[in-house]
Design a protein that fits this description.
- The chain has 667 residues and is mostly beta strands.
- Among the domains are: 102 residues, Immunoglobulin-like, CATH 2.60.40; 89 residues, Sandwich (Immunoglobulin-like), CATH 2.60.40.
- The protein has seven helices and 45 strands.
- The strands form 13 sheets. Strands 11, 12, 14, 15 and 16 form a five-stranded antiparallel beta sheet that branches.
- A hairpin with a 5-residue loop joins strand 23 and strand 24.
- The protein is globular and about 95 Å long.
- 25% of the residues are buried.
Length: 667
């Protein structure tokens, strides 16, 4: 009653405003602002069937969590073992996730649903990592598990989302003919755990980037990893101490809790691609009238055969330029009557991958049309003005284009590239002149002291090489008609002045390498993990001279076949990719510094060698539950049975590779 009396005492305007505010607040049912951000992932409450239940015959699974959840990319992240040919139906409904298996369940078989990080909460997308559910269709449940880490063999990057599976059939042919029996998927940092393995049973392990989702290696373009040896999963009983405090300082009780630690938990898989990609024509183009360009997906040791279809020409109607691997080809057309045809049709015979993944000779009919660029308005006005003049301008002389690529300040150790826009027919070496400035005079350097030779790696490029003097001043001159191209055009007169840098502008670096004497190559890398310069390892050392000051990183690969390049693996030949190591720190080089750096390639665990600054899959800082880590025998918080079970140094119970240079887990 008092409430109504108070309302009657309010002025009408205040009453209207108050009611309006009340209605507005009721109409906007938004989530209250403020409060701490939700950083806790969903927690498992119950499921049907229960975890590790036996004698299950139904194909419907329901899991309940403590909050509303979503399933992120279920077809990619959720892995079911044994593998399901038909994709199960997976959906989130409120706090529950429902799964309906489509394949018939096998008798006396343990099934595992590995969710990875697919279960996330509805609001902040906090992921429940490493969650799995297991049950058996028989009387017993296989309970052993193995774990490890999957790295890219060439750059030691953790590999994410790659299938890792095992076979009880340990024959080599199983990987290419049978689906994996029990599988998992590598997480964001490359860790994997394969659960519910049988006791006293040998397994072989593989990793596969399964492009066609048939769970076996039948496509040579797929990324893979494998170990040559089989293993047997096992567990050891252990204890951890749980301390109960009466207050923050006083210990009340210490309870010892038994648990099982699963092995092997230090498996190292190195992923690679055999570079057996399907061969096909990636692109064809005719950007200019006189040149036809073709790009193929992979190298080949033979060249295509081309035949004109809508024009007549002899067998020498073109000049072919190809790179070292024959996957980039340019056909320069000699005859103007041919290249002035807007549309050229020709037949090309080349090797292409067929439906059986074999190289077979195919015959393509190709059409290449030249489309002239549109003329600008200013050029049109000039042409119109010239047409109206009584005495038109004489056409300009057209020269073969030559570019001397040297800056005003040239590196002391590098040759000078001289590039041509078109293939050259002849070059007159005596028409090139090199001069050195001494005091105020230009002194001619005899052509017996410097060299001018074709670049073996670049078409239409010559290299002028000389032992440059630091801080020296030089000049290159080329006479008119020094070079004549395939169309009979000659170059114009060219001269270029330049200076050589001082030695004080460079740094020098020497690696004293422990663990290998020779048969390896060290690569200096930039901040993007790209090689800048290479040096061989000779007598336990690798030397780099004339380096620009800056920040570098270093990678080394074991050149097992001594061919001077990194080689990948091959499963049919049982070849692992060549081993790679990273120097675990950045190298800061300053001008006029000589740096000697020790490098023990076994001192740091292989998964921790690559510096985070150039690593793409970087570990995230997360709060770790010390009690949980101790329970899982995992001092780094990677979770139960993961790659680092009882290994403070990274791999193996010896404490990592640092104390064991024989690489026991690089199987």
């Amino acid at each position: 009653m008092k409430y109504h009396l108070t309302l009657r005492c309010l002025p009408i305007a205040i009453l209207i405003i108050s009611m309006g505010l009340l209605l507005f607040s009721c109409a906007n049912m938004s989530r209250p602002s403020g409060g701490p951000k939700d950083e806790t992932p969903p927690q498992y409450i119950k499921s049907r069937p229960l975890p590790n239940a036996c004698n299950i015959d139904g194909k419907r699974i329901e899991i309940e969590f403590d909050e509303i959840v979503q399933v992120d990319k279920p077809s990619e992240k959720i892995i079911i073992s044994p593998v399901q040919i038909s994709m199960p139906k997976i959906q989130a409904q409120g706090k529950k996730v429902r799964i309906e298996l489509q394949d018939s369940l096998l008798p006396n078989t343990t099934y595992t649903l590995d969710f990875g990080d697919a279960i996330v909460d509805n609001n902040e997308k906090n992921a429940l990592k490493g969650f799995s559910l297991s049950f058996s269709t028989g009387d017993t449940l296989d309970s052993l598990q193995i774990s490890g880490i999957l790295l890219n063999a060439e750059n030691l990057e953790p590999v994410t989302g790659m299938l890792v599976g095992v076979y009880s059939n340990i024959e080599d042919s199983a990987f290419s003919t049978l689906p994996m029996e029990r599988i998992s998927s590598s997480d964001a940092l490359g860790h994997f755990t394969i659960r519910n393995l049988k006791a006293d049973h040998p397994y072989r392990i593989f990793a596969l980037k399964d492009a066609n989702r048939n769970y076996r290696f039948d496509d040579p373009s797929e990324d893979i990893a494998f170990l040559d040896t089989a293993f047997v999963a096992y567990a050891e009983p252990k204890q951890y101490a749980d301390t109960i405090y009466t207050d923050s300082l006083t210990v009340d009780t210490i309870i010892y809790i038994d648990y099982n630690s699963f092995y092997p938990n230090d498996i190292l898989l190195m992923a690679f691609n055999e570079q057996k990609k399907n061969r096909y024509m990636e692109d064809k183009s005719r950007v200019t009238r006189n040149k036809l360009d073709f790009i193929f997906s992979t190298p080949h040791d033979s060249l295509p055969r081309i035949t004109p279809l809508n024009f007549e020409a002899d067998s020498n109607w073109y000049v072919l330029e190809s790179n070292l691997t024959n996957d980039t080809l340019s056909y320069w057309i000699k005859d103007s009557l041919v290249f002035n045809i807007d549309t050229l049709k020709l037949s090309m015979q080349y090797y292409r991958t067929d439906t059986l993944n074999n190289l077979s000779l195919c015959d393509d009919t190709l059409t290449l049309t030249y489309r002239a660029p549109k003329e600008s308005k200013s050029k049109k006005r000039r042409n119109t003005r010239n047409e109206n003049d009584s005495l038109p301008d004489a056409p300009p002389t057209v020269f073969a284009e030559m570019t001397i690529n040297v800056s005003n300040s040239h590196d002391v150790h590098k040759p000078i590239p001289i590039q041509f826009a078109t293939p050259i027919d002849s070059i007159n070496h005596s028409a090139f002149h090199l001069y050195e400035k001494q005091d105020t005079l230009w002194i001619n350097i005899p052509d017996t002291i410097y060299t001018l030779a074709p670049d073996s790696t670049r078409s239409r490029t010559y290299l002028l090489s000389h032992k440059w003097k630091p801080e020296g001043e030089y000049k290159i001159e080329a006479d008119s008609m020094a070079v004549i191209d395939m169309y009979g055009l000659h170059t114009d007169k060219v001269n270029k002045n330049f200076k050589i840098k001082s030695l004080q502008e460079y740094s020098n670096l020497y690696f004293a390498i422990m663990g290998i004497q020779d048969g390896a190559v060290v690569q200096l890398l930039d901040g993007g993990d790209k090689p800048v310069v290479n040096a061989p390892v000779l007598e336990g050392g690798a030397e780099f001279t004339y380096l620009k000051p800056g920040t570098y990183y270093a990678r080394m690969y074991i050149d097992s076949n001594n061919n001077g390049k990194y080689d990948t693996g091959n499963y049919a030949l049982k070849l692992q990719p060549e081993e790679v190591y990273y120097y675990p720190q950045a190298l800061e080089l300053r001008a006029f510094w000589n740096v000697e750096q020790d490098w023990n390639i076994y001192q740091t665990a292989i998964d921790r060698q690559k510096p985070n600054a150039i690593k793409k899959n970087k570990p995230k800082e997360e709060k770790k539950d010390k009690k949980e880590d101790e329970e899982n025998d995992d001092p780094y918080g990677y979770g139960s049975g993961n790659a680092y079970g009882n290994t403070p140094g990274g791999y193996g119970s010896s404490g990592g590779y640092g104390s064991n240079p024989s690489f026991p887990t690089r199987r």
